[in-house]
Amino acid sequence: MTSEVRVPTLGESVTEATVATWFKKPGDSVAVDEMLCELETDKVTVEVPSPVAGTLADIVAAEGETVGVDALLANISEGDAAPAKSEAPKAVDAGAEDVKPRDAADDVDVMVPTLGESVSEATVSTWFKTVGDHVEADEMLCELETDKVSVEVPAPTSGTLTQIIAEEGSTVEANGKLAVISQSEGGSASKPADDTTEPKAGGQVPAPGNAPSGDVEDAPSAKKAMAEAGISRDQVTGTGRDGRVMKEDVAKAVAAGKNASKPAAAAPRAPSAPQDAAREERVKMTRLRQTIAKRLKDSQNTAAMLTTYNEVDMTEIMALRNEYKDLFLKKHGVKLGFMSFFTKACIHALNEVPEVNAEIDGTDVVYKNYVNMGIAAGTPTGLVVPVVKDAQAMSFADIEKEIGELGAKARDGKLSMAEMQGGTFTISNGGVYGSLMSSPILNPPQSGILGMHKIQDRPMAINGQVVIRPMMYLALSYDHRIVDGKGAVTFLVRVKEALEDPRRLLMDL
């Protein structure tokens, strides 16, 4: 009996996809729900599981082909069914019949944890353990990467990691199955069904590390490690499926000094000359970077974005900060920075120009009677915007403490989904990187974002005299659909006035 493998529903308004990767080839044995191939659309990556257990008879849509919804991808013959994943794995080497199968009742599934509101899938970034390793309860097994945060997956129990179902680089859905841990002391670990140490069709076992003649997608963590170590793909011996390079392979190559000089162990991945290959490197974007790119482009395509500029004399703020910073630190246990002043100044201006703190919902404008201030922060993995909730009700000290805590979490990749949602206005400080002038991009669905820049001494005309003052350019990008030019300019002027004379904040002027 033959079962058809067809393209699943791809999502609203998505009608076609490209076949990116086949994980199986004709003749391979497959189990129910085992991943067969991966499809790419203009929005998401979709994995196609096997509907039945059996043998992959033929592949109808090859890699690189474009297919529509419900199109035929492959056929599976159910006559020679593969064992279910929960059964005892078969040993590869001679004498396998002497291995005592473990009790399936002792198996504990490692599942994808809850990823957060509106997040339905993640990419397996790094496995910290390999099949056969002993693990303790709550020990970190792997790390998942979503379009917003990184999530560590702990072991639900102590035992032996007997099976890794979702390899590095694969996409998994919320509550999907990642691996299996056996609590039985005598449980035998099994490599994944497509591991290179298991016989392929025809009974031949390829030597570990031999790269295939085709192009194989290496683990994303391995690509990153190779880039950081400054070594090329040909200098690393891959031990993953079909010669796929894993993160640990890169570590071994670096430790052995293979980056000095090592002959290529495989056919070139591209027809270009070796000297050309060293000039370029292709690394797949992380999910976070893909989401940043998509959201910023969507913002440009959706909002009628315009930017207005002004400059602020930072003399009074700097003098006030220098005068009270020691007392502030002693009393509140946190340093007095510039961000609390800018946050307070923006809140003051938003009260006068509420449309900058609003958003468009269909044909309605939603005005916010509170300020959830987004503070854009650069991290090693990309830009994130943690949110200071109800900032209008916070003191200078409360704001500084919250910004400090959120900033530390952002750098460590520990921000939760809740801490990055619900912002109504955003402040971006490019000045910390030396930026003198820029036009920030809106963070949708917000209608305004303030760009801070470098404080630079410049000659200014004050009361008919040329004096040197610490000046900063300010930039307000806004959605012209609901914010008029007059409102935008008024907002920026109010921020400037509050910063140049901080007493106005106390007097609500």
What general outline do the C-alpha atoms trace? Answer: elongated
Contiguous low-pLDDT stretches (5 residues minimum) are 81-100, 190-214, 258-268
CATH superfamily of the largest domain: Chloramphenicol acetyltransferase-like domain
Beta-strand percentage? 25-35%
Largest sheet: 7 strands, mixed
Report the CATH topology name of the largest domain.
Answer: Chloramphenicol Acetyltransferase
CATH architecture of the largest domain: 2-Layer Sandwich
Catalytic activity: N(6)-[(R)-dihydrolipoyl]-L-lysyl-[protein] + succinyl-CoA = N(6)-[(R)-S(8)-succinyldihydrolipoyl]-L-lysyl-[protein] + CoA
Domain Peripheral subunit-binding (PSBD): 217-254
GO molecular function: dihydrolipoyllysine-residue succinyltransferase activity
Pathway: Amino-acid degradation; L-lysine degradation via saccharopine pathway; glutaryl-CoA from L-lysine: step 6/6
Summary of the model, kept short:
The chain has 509 residues and is of the alpha+beta class. The chain has helices spanning 220-229, 247-255, 274-277, 287-302, 315-332, 339-352, 396-412, 485-500, 503-507; strands spanning 2-6, 16-22, 29-30, 35-40, 45-49, 54-59, 66-68, 72-77, 107-111, 121-127, 134-135, 140-145, 150-154, 159-164, 171-173, 177-182, 305-313, 358-361, 364-367, 373-375, 377-379, 382-384, 387-388, 425-429, 448-452, 456-462, 465-479. It is elongated, with a radius of gyration of 28 Å.
Explain what the structure shows.
Keywords: Acyltransferase, Lipoyl, Transferase, Tricarboxylic acid cycle. Its EC number is 2.3.1.61. Pathway: Amino-acid degradation; L-lysine degradation via saccharopine pathway; glutaryl-CoA from L-lysine: step 6/6. The chain is of the alpha+beta class and 509 residues long. 21% of the residues lie in helices and 28% in strands. The chain has helices spanning 220-229, 247-255, 274-277, 287-302, 315-332, 339-352, 396-412, 485-500, 503-507, and strands at residues 2-6, 16-22, 29-30, 35-40, 45-49, 54-59, 66-68, 72-77, 107-111, 121-127, 134-135, 140-145, 150-154, 159-164, 171-173, 177-182, 305-313, 358-361, 364-367, 373-375, 377-379, 382-384, 387-388, 425-429, 448-452, 456-462, 465-479. The strands form seven sheets. Strands 17, 20, 23, 24, 25, 26 and 27 form a seven-stranded mixed β-sheet that branches. A four-stranded antiparallel β-sheet has the order 1-8-6-3, with no helix packed on it. The protein has a four-stranded antiparallel β-sheet with strand order 5-4-2-7, with no helix packed on it. The radius of gyration is 28 Å and the shape is elongated. Residues 81-100, 190-214 and 258-268 have low confidence and may be disordered.
